[in-house]
Design goal:
Layout lengths: L2 H5 L2 H7 L7 E4 L5 E6 L2 E5 L6 E7 L6 H16 L7 E6 L2 H6 L24 H18 L5 E10 L7 E5 L9 H9 L4 E4 L7 H9 L2 E9 L12 H12 L14 E10 L6 E2 L9 E4 L3 E5 L2 E4 L4 E5 L10 E9 L8
Parallel strand pairs: 4-5, 4-6, 6-9, 7-8, 8-10
Antiparallel strand pairs: 1-2, 2-3, 3-5, 7-9, 10-16, 11-13, 12-15, 13-14, 15-16
Helix pairs in contact: 5-7
Bound molecules: the ligand O=C(O)CCC(=O)N[C@@H](CCC(=O)O)C(=O)O and zinc ion.
Zinc ion binds next to loops.
Protein name: Succinylglutamate desuccinylase
GO molecular function, one term: hydrolase activity, acting on ester bonds
Function: Transforms N(2)-succinylglutamate into succinate and glutamate.
Length: 342
């Protein structure tokens, strides 16, 4: 079997080797180099790349399958040559063992292990080893040249249904301006809700934003479903924008439509302290459900959390996280006019 044939189903090959895949290289149609850096990690480099360096990651949580299927389809077209690759692109399928087990994580949440968090404490877990390797691959990719526009879209789906099906988490920028052209890209991708992080985190998108000054986002693209059960037509706009980014260096999204964009800030973050933690609302409450001031949100032994602002909506409520981890975010609408835009 030729190297190119081996890559024809790179996701299947990676899932067959969830811990390690020996590096391999080959040339694709139109002179694009394809380099396997590890299992689930594939770098595409055209002979004369445009000025964007693009990381597309998915499956950091193993059971978030819609983005994995989207990336698999995109990659297959690039490898076959039916979609032209004209930018450097790094594809990352994150937690292959988690995918094989149909689980979000095996030992711990990989998306809390970046920016060096994988090296804190004594634990050695599969997710820690993988997060350390993924950091090194992103570093290698972005460090290969200095004058590119760096982009990283980390694709996820949410555990609960959402009143806003798709939304982006914009990592904390330490006071820098938010990118109007990136917000326009999100809109063109069918994402009209943006949640602004209020502090540094140990997520993958924050790592790329902070370390490499990349335009980086966590994109929430619907609800978690098993492989084969996703309606990928709901992601057509995002797929089209990623294709355009990869295949047309001159492509720009249509101008931002401010009236259509809904921006939220974080009013409070609820952290689980112990196994006594309980959410005070039903397990079927969806993301972006609103609560009124004073409503009880959660308890943990003597500690109680209530709605503080006149109205707050809940995002990512999850009582099953490990103690010490975020169990919910409370968010409030922010006028776009109040944001520094660049
Ligand atoms: O639905 C949920 O409760 C979690 C969905 C998810 O995995 N979200 C990401 C968001 C990362 C970020 O804040 O940038 C996560 O929790 O890792
Ligand atoms: Zn996720």
């Amino acid at each position: 079997m030729t190297q190119t044939h081996k890559l024809a189903d790179f996701l299947a090959l990676s899932r067959e080797h969830p811990r390690y895949l020996a590096p391999l290289e080959c040339e694709l149609p139109h002179g694009t180099r394809a380099e396997v850096w590890d299992t689930g990690v594939l770098c595409l480099e055209p002979a004369s790349p445009g000025e964007r360096d693009l990381v597309i990651s998915c499956g950091i949580h193993g059971n978030e399958t819609a983005p994995i299927e989207l990336c698999e389809a995109l990659l297959k077209r690039l490898i076959a040559g039916s979609l032209l690759c004209r930018q450097r692109v790094l594809f990352i399928f994150g937690n292959l063992a988690g995918m094989n087990a149909g689980r979000r994580e095996l030992d711990e949440n990989m998306n809390r292990l970046f920016s060096g968090a994988h090296a804190q404490g004594e634990r050695i877990t599969q997710e820690r080893k993988r997060a350390a390797l993924l950091e090194s691959y992103v570093t290698r990719f972005f460090s290969a040249r200095g004058n590119s526009e760096r982009l990283h879209y980390d694709l996820h789906t949410a555990i609960r249904p959402s009143q806003r099906e798709k939304f982006a988490v914009y990592p904390f920028l330490h006071g820098a301006a938010y990118s109007a052209s990136q917000l326009a890209f999100l809109q063109a991708s069918g994402i009209n809700t943006v949640l602004l992080a209020h502090a540094p985190t140990s997520t993958f998108s924050y790592f790329s934003a902070r370390r490499f000054n990349a335009h980086a986002f966590t994109l929430e693209l619907g609800k978690v479903m098993p492989f084969g059960k996703n309606d990928l037509t709901r992601l057509t706009e995002l797929a089209g924008c990623l294709e355009a980014l990869i295949s047309d260096p001159a492509w720009q999204p249509p101008a931002l439509q401010p009236a259509q964009l809904e921006v939220f800030g974080i009013s409070q973050e609820i952290f689980k302290q112990s196994e006594h933690f309980r959410l005070a609302f039903a397990s079927n409450v969806s993301n972006f459900t609103s609560f009124t001031q004073g409503d009880l949100l959660a308890t943990d032994e003597q500690q109680h959390w209530h709605v503080k602002a006149s109205q707050e909506a809940v995002v990512f409520p999850n009582a099953d996280v490990a103690p010490g981890h975020r169990a919910a975010l409370m968010v409030v609408p922010l006028p776009l006019a109040d944001l520094p835009l660049g």
